[in-house]
Design brief:
The complex is a heterodimer of chains A (257) and B (240).
Chain A (H helix, E strand, L loop, with lengths): L1 E5 L8 H14 L4 E5 L5 H5 L11 H6 L5 H5 L3 E2 L5 E4 L8 H5 L8 H7 L7 E5 L6 H9 L2 E7 L2 H21 L4 E7 L6 H14 L12 H8 L4 H4 L4 H18 L1
Parallel strand pairs in A: 1-5, 1-6, 2-4, 2-5, 6-7
Antiparallel strand pairs in A: 3-4
Chain B lengths: L9 H11 L15 H4 L21 H9 L1 H4 L13 H4 L3 E9 L2 E6 L3 E6 L3 E2 L8 E7 L2 E6 L1 H5 L6 H6 L4 E5 L4 E5 L1 E9 L3 E3 L9 E5 L4 E4 L1 H9 L8
Parallel strand pairs in B: 2-12, 6-8
Antiparallel strand pairs in B: 1-2, 1-9, 3-7, 4-5, 5-6, 7-8, 10-11, 11-12
The chains are: A alpha/beta (257), B alpha+beta (240).
Chain lengths: 257, 240
């Protein structure tokens, strides 16, 4: 089971779009995919038409379970329109976790431990992280083997990236491991000079860590979300989907190396 | 521990993260994983339309099954009209994915590899002198997408005024690389199918667009190439 976290401490950079589109493409490859929404705003859950406030269980129940086992996780899953794609939805109650467990030892490892129980059930787990550093993002990052950092190709987003990368450095030190980080330039508009400049700065500053493609601005992502369907199904020939397919190919090739 | 990084209180951040990531004693159960399939229903619950009353008459699974069973009677007719290409059954892998969608209570499926995309159905401009199932042209990014009234094309014999009024088309399911799109009311889901799960029509008969019947769901699997060919010729679903 491969576990990827999609993280950035800045909001609106394309985390949910990246999670959903890669998840859709993987499911279309026939892979068994679990998408975990760890953002209290539950954008990923809403994307699939899941109103998590109406659900009796969510990923919150995994975090607060007295004792973890497979059922705790599996009972929370929601199916999607793709039959090999499942969602572990978020709920606003997640926002309370930082207060209740933010200073308790080991509370950053709950997801990592929970996923051990379902490792035979899925080929890929993709976790959509909240745009704040806290117990939820730490859990996702600690559980994953690869971190995807979508970055909007504009200068404010680059500043947010500095913070994100530094956070990861500290966590690497704490966990005594190296994270496999791929920075993904998103919402790239080749007609805008500022986007081209920001992309160049990204390449200069982070070099090898930056994926060598870009995810273009594409309104089909918005259309797909309105239809509550991954863009890879909704608009398989969209240029944005094509770019994500290329990214996925790169990630899968790197994983098998 | 601060090394003058991005955080003003580097040490505080390190303490916070160290505490959260403290492995501590292992207390987890090591039970084997329970079966996912039993725990999670695989079928997506289909939303019911808010305003549309059940349409009478709807196409029933029996109708579809009968249509598929008629193949032996029909297969000799109008062979000349068929697209000279490998059959859908030959083209598809043993496992393939199909998008299921709803039109007037009828569920149709198209293999994803022949799906050109999905558009929200917007303003459609009718054209004069076209068949009645020809809804018109929808402009999308300077592209002209030709919209088909799917209910009228697939089941003209059941297309009543009442049915027409009840239709609430939302999406346009694009066929392959063509400009043809099938209007649909609801997207249901995408399912991985094995070829064995389809009752394939053994030869092209009167309805070459009907590749077969998805047994489990009793719904029609569309042969997109054949359907495009018929639409290009201005033929209705039963016109061969």
């Amino acid at each position: 089971m491969k576990i990827w976290a999609i993280a950035n401490q800045k909001g609106g950079v394309g985390k949910t779009t990246t999670t959903v589109t890669l998840g859709g493409l993987l499911a279309q490859q026939g892979k068994r995919v679990l998408l975990i929404d760890t953002d209290p705003h539950a954008s990923l859950s809403y994307y699939f038409g899941i109103d998590s406030e109406q659900l009796s269980v969510s990923v919150y129940d995994v975090f607060v379970a007295d004792k973890l086992n497979a059922d705790v996780v599996l009972d929370c899953l929601c199916p999607s329109r793709l039959d090999s794609l499942f969602i572990l939805p978020a709920t606003m109650a997640l926002a309370t976790l930082d207060r209740s467990m933010g200073m308790q030892n080991g509370k950053g490892l709950i997801l990592k431990n929970a996923l051990k129980f379902v490792q035979q059930e899925f080929d890929y787990v993709l976790m959509d992280c909240p745009p704040v550093l806290g117990v939820l993002m730490v859990n996702a990052v600690a559980a994953c083997e690869r971190i995807l950092v979508p970055v909007q190709t504009e200068f404010l987003a680059l500043k947010g990236l500095d913070r994100m990368m530094h956070t990861l450095e500290i966590m690497e030190k704490t966990q005594k491991r190296r994270f496999d980080v791929t920075i993904i330039p998103t919402m790239f508009d080749k007609r805008v000079n500022a986007a081209i400049d920001a992309h160049n700065v990204l390449l200069e500053q982070y070099g090898q860590q930056v994926w060598d493609g870009v995810i273009p601005v594409d309104t089909r992502f918005r259309d797909a979300s309105q239809a509550q369907t991954p863009a890879s199904v909704y608009s398989p020939r969209a240029r944005g989907v094509y770019a994500y397919a290329k990214l996925l190919k790169t990630l899968q090739q790197e994983t098998t190396k | 521990m601060s090394k003058g990084g991005a955080f003003a209180k580097e040490g505080l951040m390190e303490d916070y993260l160290s505490s959260l990531l403290d492995e501590g004693p292992e207390t987890l159960e090591k039970d084997p994983v329970a079966k996912l399939i039993e725990s999670v229903p695989l079928q997506v619950e289909i939303e019911q339309p808010d305003v549309i009353e059940p349409v009478q008459p709807q196409v029933t699974t029996k109708d579809i099954a009968e249509a598929v069973d008629k193949v032996n009677e029909e297969q000799q007719a109008a062979e000349a009209h068929h697209v000279a290409s490998a059959s859908l059954q030959e083209t598809l892998d043993d496992e393939f994915q199909a998008l299921f969608f709803d039109v007037a209570g009828l569920t149709l499926a198209v293999p994803l590899i022949t799906l050109g995309g999905i558009h929200n159905l917007e303003k459609v401009n009718p054209l004069i002198g076209k068949p009645d199932w020809f809804m018109g042209v929808m402009i999308h990014r300077d592209e002209k997408l030709t919209s088909v009234d799917t209910a009228r094309w697939v089941m003209p014999e059941k297309y009543t005024e009442k049915l027409a009024e009840s239709l609430n088309y939302q999406y346009l399911i694009m066929l392959g690389n063509s400009a043809w799109g099938l209007a649909c009311e609801k997207l249901i889901n995408t399912v991985v199918l094995n070829k064995d799960e389809v009752k394939w029509r053994e030869a092209h008969g009167k309805r070459p667009w009907l590749a077969g019947l998805v047994k489990d769901k009793m719904c029609a699997l569309v042969d997109v190439d054949q359907m495009i060919s018929m639409l290009e010729q201005g033929l209705g679903s039963n016109d061969l």
